[in-house]
Specification:
The protein is an alpha+beta fold and about 80 residues long. The chain has a single domain (about 1-80), classed as GIY-YIG endonuclease. About 40% of the residues lie in helices and about 30% in strands. The chain has three helices and three strands; from the N terminus they run E-E-H-E-H-H. It has a three-stranded antiparallel sheet with strand order 2-1-3, with helices on both faces. A hairpin with a 5-residue loop joins strand 1 (about 1-10) and strand 2 (about 15-20). The mean pLDDT is about 95.
Length: about 80
């Protein structure tokens, strides 16, 4: 299984969108400074996850959400509006 996930920084109220095959390991990496792009937002928490059978499907969904370039869209997705 692969996951498309959204993290929220508890420090600066920003979101991070990614994909992985191990959501718990990936969150640990984000929160232990292994990921340069998320270091400034530690601590991160998982606020949304979708499961996919293939990595390709997870990447397509990740890119679709990123292409929206909208914090409002992300918040609505998390709250079940989209």
């Amino acid at each position: 299984m692969f996951h498309m996930y959204i993290l929220k920084s508890e420090k600066n109220d920003k979101y991070y969108i990614g994909h992985t095959n191990d959501i718990h390991r990936r969150l640990e990496e984000h929160n232990s400074r292994h990921t340069k792009s998320t270091r400034a937002g530690i601590p991160w928490k998982i606020v949304f996850v979708e499961e996919y059978k293939t990595k390709h499907e997870a990447i397509i969904r990740e890119n679709k959400i990123k292409s929206m370039k909208s914090k409002k869209f992300i918040k609505e997705l998390i709250n079940g509006v989209n």
